[in-house]
Amino acid sequence: MTWVQLASTAVLLAFSPQRHVRTSTMLKMSDTATTPPAVPSPSSSQGEKYASLLSWFNEVPDSYINPKFTIRESPRGGFGAFVEEDVSEDELIVSIPPGARVTIADVTNDPDCGKAFKTLIEKAGPGGSTVALAGYLAKEYLLLCENAKKSEEEEKKEIKFSSYFNTLPWKRGVNSQEHVLFWSEADVEKYLTGSMAYAEATEIRDEVAFATTVINGIIGPIILQSRMGEPEVAWPALPWMKPPPPKVDGMVDGVAEAVKGAFVSILTRSFEGQTAGMDEKEELQPLLDMLQHSEYPNIRHGVNSEGVVEVRARKDIEGGSELFNQYRGEEELNMPYHRFFTRFGFVPGLTEPATALLEEKSTIFFARKKEV
Predict the structure, then answer these.
(1) Strands 292-293 and 324-325
(2) CB 217 within 8 A of CB 6
(3) What pTM value is reported for the model?
(4) Per-residue pLDDT tens over the stretch 90-110
(5) CB neighbour list of residue 213: distance below 8 Å, 6 or more residues apart
(6) What is the arithmetic mean of pLDDT over 328-334?
Protein backbone atom coordinates (compact mmCIF):
# COMPACT_ATOMS: atom_id res chain seq x y z
CA MET A 1 0.00 0.00 0.00
CA THR A 2 1.41 3.38 -0.95
CA TRP A 3 0.69 6.95 0.10
CA VAL A 4 -0.18 7.66 -3.52
CA GLN A 5 -2.94 5.04 -3.38
CA LEU A 6 -4.23 6.43 -0.08
CA ALA A 7 -4.15 9.97 -1.43
CA SER A 8 -6.26 8.85 -4.37
CA THR A 9 -8.81 7.29 -2.05
CA ALA A 10 -8.81 10.31 0.27
CA VAL A 11 -9.41 12.70 -2.61
CA LEU A 12 -12.37 10.64 -3.80
CA LEU A 13 -13.85 10.60 -0.30
CA ALA A 14 -13.48 14.34 0.02
CA PHE A 15 -14.43 15.56 -3.42
CA SER A 16 -16.64 12.95 -5.13
CA PRO A 17 -19.90 14.40 -6.55
CA GLN A 18 -21.92 12.98 -3.68
CA ARG A 19 -19.55 14.28 -0.99
CA HIS A 20 -20.94 17.21 0.91
CA VAL A 21 -20.03 19.11 4.04
CA ARG A 22 -22.76 21.32 5.45
CA THR A 23 -21.73 24.94 5.59
CA SER A 24 -22.23 27.77 8.03
CA THR A 25 -22.19 31.54 7.66
CA MET A 26 -20.65 34.30 9.75
CA LEU A 27 -22.85 35.80 12.44
CA LYS A 28 -22.36 38.84 14.63
CA MET A 29 -21.53 38.25 18.26
CA SER A 30 -24.60 38.52 20.45
CA ASP A 31 -25.58 38.33 24.08
CA THR A 32 -26.31 34.82 25.30
CA ALA A 33 -27.54 33.45 28.59
CA THR A 34 -24.78 32.67 31.05
CA THR A 35 -26.75 30.29 33.27
CA PRO A 36 -27.24 26.81 31.76
CA PRO A 37 -30.90 25.88 31.41
CA ALA A 38 -32.37 22.76 32.90
CA VAL A 39 -31.66 19.68 30.80
CA PRO A 40 -34.76 18.74 28.78
CA SER A 41 -35.91 15.15 29.17
CA PRO A 42 -36.52 13.05 26.04
CA SER A 43 -39.93 11.43 25.93
CA SER A 44 -38.92 7.75 25.98
CA SER A 45 -36.48 5.40 27.70
CA GLN A 46 -34.75 5.09 24.35
CA GLY A 47 -33.86 8.74 24.69
CA GLU A 48 -31.70 8.31 27.79
CA LYS A 49 -28.55 8.63 25.72
CA TYR A 50 -29.81 11.97 24.39
CA ALA A 51 -30.46 13.17 27.93
CA SER A 52 -26.85 12.27 28.69
CA LEU A 53 -25.77 14.16 25.57
CA LEU A 54 -27.62 17.30 26.67
CA SER A 55 -26.22 17.05 30.20
CA TRP A 56 -22.65 16.74 28.85
CA PHE A 57 -23.17 19.59 26.39
CA ASN A 58 -24.37 21.92 29.15
CA GLU A 59 -21.10 21.35 31.01
CA VAL A 60 -18.91 22.49 28.08
CA PRO A 61 -17.68 26.07 28.69
CA ASP A 62 -19.46 28.72 26.57
CA SER A 63 -22.15 26.29 25.43
CA TYR A 64 -25.83 27.21 25.53
CA ILE A 65 -29.08 25.31 25.13
CA ASN A 66 -32.32 27.25 25.04
CA PRO A 67 -34.63 25.86 27.79
CA LYS A 68 -37.30 25.42 25.07
CA PHE A 69 -35.08 22.98 23.15
CA THR A 70 -35.48 19.22 23.49
CA ILE A 71 -34.73 15.98 21.69
CA ARG A 72 -37.42 13.38 21.19
CA GLU A 73 -38.81 10.93 18.69
CA SER A 74 -39.65 12.43 15.31
CA PRO A 75 -42.68 11.61 13.18
CA ARG A 76 -40.19 11.23 10.34
CA GLY A 77 -38.45 8.36 12.12
CA GLY A 78 -35.68 8.24 14.67
CA PHE A 79 -35.07 11.23 16.91
CA GLY A 80 -35.13 14.92 16.11
CA ALA A 81 -34.85 18.34 17.75
CA PHE A 82 -37.94 20.28 18.88
CA VAL A 83 -38.93 23.43 20.73
CA GLU A 84 -41.50 22.96 23.49
CA GLU A 85 -42.61 26.61 23.53
CA ASP A 86 -42.92 29.37 20.96
CA VAL A 87 -39.63 30.74 19.64
CA SER A 88 -39.27 34.17 18.07
CA GLU A 89 -37.46 34.90 14.83
CA ASP A 90 -33.68 35.16 15.38
CA GLU A 91 -33.96 33.75 18.91
CA LEU A 92 -30.85 31.81 19.93
CA ILE A 93 -31.55 28.08 20.23
CA VAL A 94 -28.12 26.49 20.64
CA SER A 95 -24.54 27.74 20.89
CA ILE A 96 -21.81 25.21 20.04
CA PRO A 97 -18.33 26.36 21.14
CA PRO A 98 -15.12 24.87 19.70
CA GLY A 99 -14.71 22.68 22.79
CA ALA A 100 -17.95 20.85 22.03
CA ARG A 101 -17.10 20.16 18.37
CA VAL A 102 -15.08 17.21 17.10
CA THR A 103 -12.36 18.75 14.95
CA ILE A 104 -9.14 17.75 13.22
CA ALA A 105 -7.33 19.30 16.19
CA ASP A 106 -8.84 16.57 18.38
CA VAL A 107 -7.61 14.01 15.88
CA THR A 108 -4.01 15.22 15.58
CA ASN A 109 -3.70 15.88 19.33
CA ASP A 110 -5.02 12.44 20.27
CA PRO A 111 -2.58 10.92 22.80
CA ASP A 112 -2.93 7.43 21.32
CA CYS A 113 -2.67 7.98 17.57
CA GLY A 114 -2.35 11.72 16.99
CA LYS A 115 1.14 11.56 15.47
CA ALA A 116 0.13 8.80 13.06
CA PHE A 117 -3.03 10.66 12.07
CA LYS A 118 -1.02 13.82 11.44
CA THR A 119 1.40 11.90 9.22
CA LEU A 120 -1.52 10.40 7.33
CA ILE A 121 -2.99 13.86 6.69
CA GLU A 122 0.34 15.27 5.54
CA LYS A 123 1.22 12.39 3.22
CA ALA A 124 -2.24 11.59 1.86
CA GLY A 125 -2.96 15.19 0.87
CA PRO A 126 -6.50 16.53 0.26
CA GLY A 127 -9.05 14.28 1.89
CA GLY A 128 -6.57 12.67 4.25
CA SER A 129 -8.25 14.53 7.08
CA THR A 130 -11.47 12.66 6.32
CA VAL A 131 -9.75 9.31 6.71
CA ALA A 132 -7.98 10.47 9.88
CA LEU A 133 -11.23 11.74 11.39
CA ALA A 134 -12.89 8.39 10.63
CA GLY A 135 -9.98 6.59 12.28
CA TYR A 136 -10.25 8.74 15.39
CA LEU A 137 -14.00 8.20 15.67
CA ALA A 138 -13.65 4.44 15.17
CA LYS A 139 -10.91 4.17 17.82
CA GLU A 140 -12.85 6.13 20.41
CA TYR A 141 -15.99 4.09 19.77
CA LEU A 142 -14.15 0.78 20.16
CA LEU A 143 -12.56 2.01 23.39
CA LEU A 144 -16.04 2.97 24.61
CA CYS A 145 -17.15 -0.58 23.87
CA GLU A 146 -14.21 -1.92 25.89
CA ASN A 147 -15.08 0.42 28.77
CA ALA A 148 -18.59 -0.99 28.83
CA LYS A 149 -17.22 -4.50 29.38
CA LYS A 150 -15.19 -3.51 32.44
CA SER A 151 -16.34 -3.60 36.04
CA GLU A 152 -16.55 -0.49 38.18
CA GLU A 153 -13.26 -1.44 39.85
CA GLU A 154 -11.34 -1.69 36.59
CA GLU A 155 -9.64 1.36 35.10
CA LYS A 156 -11.43 2.74 32.07
CA LYS A 157 -10.11 4.82 29.20
CA GLU A 158 -11.23 8.45 29.33
CA ILE A 159 -13.19 9.36 26.19
CA LYS A 160 -13.61 13.10 25.68
CA PHE A 161 -16.83 12.94 23.64
CA SER A 162 -18.28 9.73 25.08
CA SER A 163 -21.83 11.07 25.59
CA TYR A 164 -21.87 12.37 22.03
CA PHE A 165 -20.28 9.30 20.44
CA ASN A 166 -22.92 7.12 22.09
CA THR A 167 -25.56 8.83 19.91
CA LEU A 168 -23.82 8.31 16.55
CA PRO A 169 -25.11 5.70 14.05
CA TRP A 170 -22.50 2.98 14.51
CA LYS A 171 -24.88 0.35 13.21
CA ARG A 172 -27.67 0.24 10.66
CA GLY A 173 -30.98 1.43 12.08
CA VAL A 174 -29.56 3.49 14.97
CA ASN A 175 -31.76 6.61 15.02
CA SER A 176 -33.33 5.12 11.86
CA GLN A 177 -30.05 5.62 9.98
CA GLU A 178 -29.83 3.86 6.62
CA HIS A 179 -26.74 3.89 4.42
CA VAL A 180 -25.24 1.83 1.61
CA LEU A 181 -22.07 1.42 3.69
CA PHE A 182 -24.08 -0.81 6.03
CA TRP A 183 -25.41 -3.01 3.22
CA SER A 184 -24.10 -6.44 2.34
CA GLU A 185 -22.59 -7.03 -1.10
CA ALA A 186 -25.61 -9.17 -1.92
CA ASP A 187 -28.04 -6.34 -1.12
CA VAL A 188 -26.01 -3.86 -3.18
CA GLU A 189 -26.21 -6.14 -6.20
CA LYS A 190 -29.85 -7.01 -5.59
CA TYR A 191 -31.19 -3.50 -5.18
CA LEU A 192 -28.77 -1.16 -6.92
CA THR A 193 -27.64 -3.00 -10.05
CA GLY A 194 -28.74 -0.97 -13.06
CA SER A 195 -29.67 2.07 -10.96
CA MET A 196 -28.19 5.56 -11.16
CA ALA A 197 -26.92 5.07 -7.60
CA TYR A 198 -24.92 1.91 -8.31
CA ALA A 199 -21.64 3.43 -9.48
CA GLU A 200 -21.42 5.97 -6.66
CA ALA A 201 -22.49 3.46 -4.01
CA THR A 202 -19.91 0.86 -5.05
CA GLU A 203 -17.21 3.52 -5.41
CA ILE A 204 -17.67 4.85 -1.89
CA ARG A 205 -17.82 1.31 -0.47
CA ASP A 206 -14.52 0.49 -2.19
CA GLU A 207 -12.95 3.72 -0.94
CA VAL A 208 -13.99 3.04 2.64
CA ALA A 209 -12.79 -0.57 2.44
CA PHE A 210 -9.37 0.65 1.29
CA ALA A 211 -9.21 3.34 3.98
CA THR A 212 -10.12 0.71 6.58
CA THR A 213 -6.87 -1.17 5.98
CA VAL A 214 -4.90 2.02 6.68
CA ILE A 215 -6.93 2.87 9.79
CA ASN A 216 -6.55 -0.69 11.10
CA GLY A 217 -2.79 -0.31 11.08
CA ILE A 218 -3.02 2.91 13.10
CA ILE A 219 -5.65 2.13 15.71
CA GLY A 220 -5.34 -1.67 15.83
CA PRO A 221 -2.51 -1.77 18.40
CA ILE A 222 -4.43 0.56 20.74
CA ILE A 223 -7.56 -1.57 20.55
CA LEU A 224 -5.61 -4.81 21.11
CA GLN A 225 -3.81 -3.28 24.08
CA SER A 226 -7.11 -2.17 25.63
CA ARG A 227 -8.37 -5.75 25.37
CA MET A 228 -5.19 -7.33 26.73
CA GLY A 229 -4.54 -4.85 29.52
CA GLU A 230 -1.13 -3.46 30.37
CA PRO A 231 1.49 -6.03 29.36
CA GLU A 232 3.96 -7.31 31.90
CA VAL A 233 7.41 -5.86 31.37
CA ALA A 234 9.84 -8.77 30.99
CA TRP A 235 12.89 -6.60 30.45
CA PRO A 236 14.58 -3.90 32.54
CA ALA A 237 12.83 -0.62 31.81
CA LEU A 238 13.27 2.93 32.95
CA PRO A 239 10.20 4.65 34.47
CA TRP A 240 9.49 6.73 31.35
CA MET A 241 9.81 3.82 28.93
CA LYS A 242 6.77 2.02 27.60
CA PRO A 243 6.66 -1.56 26.31
CA PRO A 244 6.08 -1.92 22.57
CA PRO A 245 2.41 -2.04 21.48
CA PRO A 246 0.88 -5.38 20.45
CA LYS A 247 1.58 -6.45 16.90
CA VAL A 248 -1.35 -6.21 14.49
CA ASP A 249 -1.67 -9.34 12.39
CA GLY A 250 -4.63 -8.89 10.07
CA MET A 251 -7.84 -6.94 10.63
CA VAL A 252 -8.53 -6.35 14.32
CA ASP A 253 -11.96 -7.58 15.37
CA GLY A 254 -14.54 -4.81 15.24
CA VAL A 255 -12.44 -2.26 13.35
CA ALA A 256 -14.12 -2.72 9.95
CA GLU A 257 -17.59 -2.26 11.43
CA ALA A 258 -16.51 0.74 13.51
CA VAL A 259 -14.89 2.42 10.49
CA LYS A 260 -18.11 1.99 8.49
CA GLY A 261 -20.06 3.66 11.28
CA ALA A 262 -17.48 6.44 11.46
CA PHE A 263 -17.72 7.19 7.74
CA VAL A 264 -21.52 7.09 7.90
CA SER A 265 -21.38 9.66 10.69
CA ILE A 266 -19.05 11.89 8.66
CA LEU A 267 -20.99 11.57 5.43
CA THR A 268 -24.35 12.24 7.05
CA ARG A 269 -23.46 14.63 9.89
CA SER A 270 -20.28 16.60 9.21
CA PHE A 271 -20.18 20.34 8.70
CA GLU A 272 -17.60 22.63 7.19
CA GLY A 273 -14.98 23.31 9.84
CA GLN A 274 -15.34 26.55 11.79
CA THR A 275 -12.22 26.30 13.96
CA ALA A 276 -9.41 28.77 13.31
CA GLY A 277 -6.45 27.22 11.51
CA MET A 278 -8.32 24.12 10.45
CA ASP A 279 -8.51 25.13 6.77
CA GLU A 280 -12.24 24.42 6.66
CA LYS A 281 -11.76 20.68 7.26
CA GLU A 282 -14.97 18.95 8.26
CA GLU A 283 -16.02 18.65 11.87
CA LEU A 284 -18.91 17.23 13.88
CA GLN A 285 -21.20 19.65 15.66
CA PRO A 286 -23.30 18.02 18.42
CA LEU A 287 -27.00 18.95 18.67
CA LEU A 288 -27.04 20.74 15.31
CA ASP A 289 -26.57 17.34 13.67
CA MET A 290 -29.75 16.10 15.37
CA LEU A 291 -31.91 18.29 13.11
CA GLN A 292 -33.59 16.47 10.25
CA HIS A 293 -33.61 17.76 6.68
CA SER A 294 -36.17 20.03 5.06
CA GLU A 295 -36.09 21.97 1.84
CA TYR A 296 -37.67 24.77 3.87
CA PRO A 297 -35.65 24.94 7.12
CA ASN A 298 -36.89 26.90 10.11
CA ILE A 299 -33.41 27.54 11.53
CA ARG A 300 -30.18 29.08 10.33
CA HIS A 301 -26.71 28.48 11.68
CA GLY A 302 -23.36 30.19 11.46
CA VAL A 303 -20.22 31.04 13.38
CA ASN A 304 -19.96 34.27 15.34
CA SER A 305 -16.88 36.45 15.83
CA GLU A 306 -15.72 34.33 18.77
CA GLY A 307 -15.79 31.07 16.83
CA VAL A 308 -19.01 29.79 18.40
CA VAL A 309 -21.56 28.15 16.11
CA GLU A 310 -24.98 29.69 16.75
CA VAL A 311 -28.27 28.06 15.79
CA ARG A 312 -31.08 30.61 15.53
CA ALA A 313 -34.71 30.60 14.51
CA ARG A 314 -35.08 31.62 10.87
CA LYS A 315 -38.66 32.68 11.61
CA ASP A 316 -41.23 32.51 14.43
CA ILE A 317 -41.60 28.85 15.42
CA GLU A 318 -44.65 27.50 17.20
CA GLY A 319 -44.17 25.50 20.40
CA GLY A 320 -44.12 21.75 19.80
CA SER A 321 -42.63 22.14 16.33
CA GLU A 322 -39.70 20.14 15.05
CA LEU A 323 -36.57 22.01 14.02
CA PHE A 324 -35.26 21.46 10.50
CA ASN A 325 -32.02 22.19 8.74
CA GLN A 326 -31.34 22.04 5.00
CA TYR A 327 -28.63 19.49 4.21
CA ARG A 328 -28.53 20.41 0.53
CA GLY A 329 -30.94 22.17 -1.81
CA GLU A 330 -33.18 19.56 -3.43
CA GLU A 331 -33.17 21.48 -6.71
CA GLU A 332 -29.38 21.40 -7.06
CA LEU A 333 -28.38 19.75 -10.32
CA ASN A 334 -25.46 17.92 -8.70
CA MET A 335 -27.60 16.50 -5.89
CA PRO A 336 -30.51 14.55 -7.43
CA TYR A 337 -32.51 12.32 -5.12
CA HIS A 338 -30.52 9.16 -5.82
CA ARG A 339 -27.39 11.01 -4.66
CA PHE A 340 -29.23 12.19 -1.56
CA PHE A 341 -29.67 8.51 -0.82
CA THR A 342 -26.05 7.48 -1.37
CA ARG A 343 -24.86 10.51 0.61
CA PHE A 344 -27.35 10.83 3.48
CA GLY A 345 -29.17 7.49 3.40
CA PHE A 346 -32.67 8.79 2.62
CA VAL A 347 -34.82 10.26 -0.13
CA PRO A 348 -36.24 13.71 0.82
CA GLY A 349 -39.97 13.75 1.48
CA LEU A 350 -40.38 9.97 1.55
CA THR A 351 -40.74 7.77 4.61
CA GLU A 352 -41.03 4.39 2.91
CA PRO A 353 -37.86 2.28 2.77
CA ALA A 354 -35.58 3.01 -0.17
CA THR A 355 -35.47 -0.71 -0.89
CA ALA A 356 -39.19 -0.57 -1.76
CA LEU A 357 -38.54 2.20 -4.29
CA LEU A 358 -35.64 0.23 -5.73
CA GLU A 359 -37.73 -2.91 -6.09
CA GLU A 360 -40.38 -0.86 -7.88
CA LYS A 361 -37.69 0.50 -10.25
CA SER A 362 -38.69 4.04 -9.26
CA THR A 363 -37.53 6.80 -11.60
CA ILE A 364 -35.78 8.30 -8.59
CA PHE A 365 -33.20 5.56 -9.00
CA PHE A 366 -33.67 4.23 -12.53
CA ALA A 367 -33.43 6.33 -15.67
CA ARG A 368 -36.62 6.35 -17.71
CA LYS A 369 -36.13 4.72 -21.08
CA LYS A 370 -37.07 6.79 -24.09
CA GLU A 371 -39.82 5.47 -26.29
CA VAL A 372 -38.75 4.63 -29.83
Answers:
(1) parallel
(2) no
(3) 0.86
(4) 999 999 999 999 999 999 999
(5) 1, 251
(6) 68
